[in-house]
Amino acid sequence: MIKTDKKNGYVHLLISRPEKKNALTRDMYAALSEGVEKAAADPDVNAIVISGDGGVFTAGNDLDDFRARATDTSPKPSAGLAFIETLMHCDTPVLVAAEGLAIGIGTTMLLHVDAVYAGRSTRFKTAFVDLGLVPEAASTVTMPLHLGARKSAELLLMGDVLTADEAADIGLISRAVEDGEALAETVAAAEKLAGKPREALRASKRLMKAPWQAMTKEALEREREVFGERLRSEECHAALARMQKK
What sign has the CA pseudo-torsion 160, 162, 167, 169? Predict the structure, then answer.
């Protein structure tokens, strides 16, 4: 589930499914999208904070959702990509507090937010190829843009794991902090934003995103088509079956 808490000048969205390491389901993506949209439309809100419950940010997309979509002859549009599009269109600053794990979309969504603070034990990984899939969330463009082609290949093709300090060094996150302090650091940044002129803040974010918007949207659509094809592939079915046995 997604818990929503409106504070003084910001909204906190908490991913709360700790028994599954906060793996994201269709309903959770929809709730996140709704939470971001409502917060962005609220004239009293200058920042949105997203964090995970139980010392974990998110283990990524729920694999049962992938299995269902892989065998569905008429799959529904991806709720995960709908959430990414919501982030892409959000003019209100979005900040993430990460602890523990940030897997799959838990890493790629960070490329669409404005600040990320992570506990030093946090690990970042994108295992799309290992699952017989391809990267999503426009990460084939946004990751090289942020991190460079060589580091992006290590993450997206090789599936390497990044520590929080490494993620900070290459610019995937804003700062690595002591374990357990990511949310406090993120809230402090949200409170700082809460005191700024709202429309100037939103206009500035729009201007910062403008040069890359068309490129990012095109990448999202290219990935959407190939990802759907890969979900139905023998490689993906075999990988998901192996994961289910573990």
Answer: negative
Angle at 208 between CA 203 and CA 211, to 5 degrees: 120
Packing angle, helices 213-231 and 139-147, rounded to 10: 130
CA distance 167 to 169: 5
State pLDDT tens for residues 85-131: 999 999 999 999 999 999 999 999 999 999 999 999 999 999 999 99
* Alpha-carbon gap, residue 190 to 30, rounded angstroms: 23
Range 2-198 has CATH code 3.40.50.150: no
CB 209 within 8 A of CB 183: no
d(CA 58, CA 22): 5
Q: What is the pTM of this model?
A: 0.95
Domain ranges for the chain: 2-198
| Distance from chain centroid for Cα 170 | 17
pLDDT digits (tens, 9 = 90+) for 130-164: 999 999 999 999 999 999 999 999 999 999 999 99
